[in-house]
């Protein structure tokens, strides 16, 4: 049916038509392992790592076929105790960037990683309020609710598929801090209010139309909620020197339209996260005895550093509060694929539910001073 798609199919992070899309292409996360292997073969072929991915994908397929734990419940595959402080996390990161052996108690396990519907953060979201699954919802966006269901204090989070990275953590933070979370996400639709043009196999003309409608109608719905805070989550990497100013101005536009004369929510941007060169699960399956080969490295002149600078430019121009997330995932320019015994990524950039929950206390600690102070 036109306009109805799978929530678990990853989409291209689209850019304005004037930019070259090729460096930013993402292929879909499929509904099952077989499609997932095929799509990952395509994805890594873009980066020139086809041979390694083929082996890793074959290993994942064999693991899933040969182990009953591949069908383990999501509660088991995502069970993890949150890290209690940033100092504790830094110590874990320092050890993690050096570890070479795949932990025997990896959470989720490689077998469980073969079922993206159970372990990826976006799986925490509900299809019933997803305009990517049901395009008609873009005309009147409806939130999914998380956090404390009895609270009268509302926090909105909006954006692309990276909303799924943080909803498990934000759900726990809301329950702990007594606020309810209104979640509005549209995978593949840009978080900044940029008018979309063109289409792709994973994001066709109906999705492009729905994305533009989502941008037009979301402010009305958010303003009616009179939220205490509005949080943006964004999954697009740097758009380069020519494109990043457009990102900054159009994200500011989004926040401005979700502010009224009577409602001045606190504006918060969750910082950009790493984009690995290949999906972590297949890399870990290929190199179980040398998992540091799967770590992501970046330097001052890298695209990731440019994305972090874009975050800083955005908060300065748009009067936002930035919660940097890369210090929770990286140390000294290295972002490990496994932190402690937790698999960080379900693919090349989307976090596992377990990793999001692992960071829940740190997110709560970052939000506390913002939500307790006056709105800006």
Secondary structure blueprint with pairings:
Blueprint: H1 33-47, H2 50-66, H3 74-77, H4 86-96, H5 110-113, H6 116-119, E1 144-147, E2 154-159, H7 163-177, E3 180-185, H8 205-225, E4 229-233, H9 240-257, E5 266-270, H10 280-286, E6 296-297, H11 303-318, E7 321-323, E8 334-335, E9 338-339, E10 342-343, H12 353-358, H13 360-372
Parallel strand pairs: 2-3, 2-4, 4-5, 5-7
Antiparallel strand pairs: 1-3, 6-8, 9-10
Helix pairs in contact: 1-2, 2-10, 7-13, 9-11
How would you summarize this macromolecular structure in one to three sentences?
Helices cover 40% and strands 10% of the residues. It is an alpha/beta fold and 376 residues long.
Describe this protein's structure.
This protein is α/β, with parallel strands linked by helices and 376 residues long. It has one domain (22-372): 3-Layer(aba) Sandwich (Rossmann fold). The chain is 40% helix and 10% strand. The protein has helices spanning 33-47, 50-66, 74-77, 86-96, 110-113, 116-119, 163-177, 205-225, 240-257, 280-286, 303-318, 353-358, 360-372, and strands at residues 144-147, 154-159, 180-185, 229-233, 266-270, 296-297, 321-323, 334-335, 338-339, 342-343. The protein has a 6-stranded mixed beta sheet, sandwiched between helices. The chain has a two-stranded antiparallel sheet with strand order 6-8. Helix 7 (163-177) packs across helix 13 (360-372) and helix 9 (240-257) packs parallel to helix 11. The radius of gyration is 19 Å and the shape is globular.
């Amino acid at each position: 049916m036109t306009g109805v798609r799978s929530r678990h199919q990853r989409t291209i992070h689209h850019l304005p038509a004037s930019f070259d899309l090729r460096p930013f292409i993402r292929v879909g996360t499929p509904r099952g392992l077989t499609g997932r292997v095929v799509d990952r073969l395509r994805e890594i072929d873009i980066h020139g790592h086809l041979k390694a991915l083929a082996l890793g994908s074959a290993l994942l397929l064999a693991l899933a076929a040969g182990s009953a734990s591949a069908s383990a419940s999501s509660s088991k595959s995502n069970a993890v105790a949150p890290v209690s402080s940033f100092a504790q996390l830094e110590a874990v990161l320092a050890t993690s960037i050096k570890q070479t052996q795949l932990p025997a108690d990896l959470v989720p396990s490689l077998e469980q990683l073969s079922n993206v519907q159970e372990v990826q953060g976006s799986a925490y979201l509900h299809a019933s309020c997803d305009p990517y699954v049901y395009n008609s919802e873009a005309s009147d966006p409806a939130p999914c609710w998380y956090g404390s269901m009895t609270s009268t204090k509302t926090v909105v989070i909006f954006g692309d598929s990276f909303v799924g990275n943080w909803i498990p953590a934000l759900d726990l933070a809301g329950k702990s801090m007594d606020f309810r979370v209104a979640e509005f996400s549209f995978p593949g639709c840009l978080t900044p209010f940029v008018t979309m043009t063109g289409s792709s196999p994973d994001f066709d003309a109906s999705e492009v139309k729905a994305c533009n409608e989502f941008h037009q109608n979301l402010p009305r719905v958010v303003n009616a909620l009179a939220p205490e805070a509005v949080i943006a989550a964004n999954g697009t990497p740097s758009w380069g020197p020519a494109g990043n100013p457009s990102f900054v101005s159009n994200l500011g536009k989004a926040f401005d339209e979700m502010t009224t004369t009577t409602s001045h929510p606190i504006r918060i941007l969750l910082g950009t996260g790493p984009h690995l060169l290949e999906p972590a699960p297949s890399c870990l399956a290929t190199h179980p005895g040398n998992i540091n080969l799967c770590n992501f490295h970046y330097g001052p002149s890298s695209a990731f550093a440019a994305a972090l600078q874009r975050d800083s430019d955005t908060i300065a121009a748009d009067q936002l509060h930035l919660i940097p997330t890369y210090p929770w995932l990286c140390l000294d320019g290295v972002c490990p694929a496994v932190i402690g015994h937790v698999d960080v990524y379900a693919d090349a950039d989307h976090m596992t539910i377990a990793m999001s929950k692992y960071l829940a206390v740190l997110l709560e600690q970052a939000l506390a001073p913002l939500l307790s102070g006056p709105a800006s």
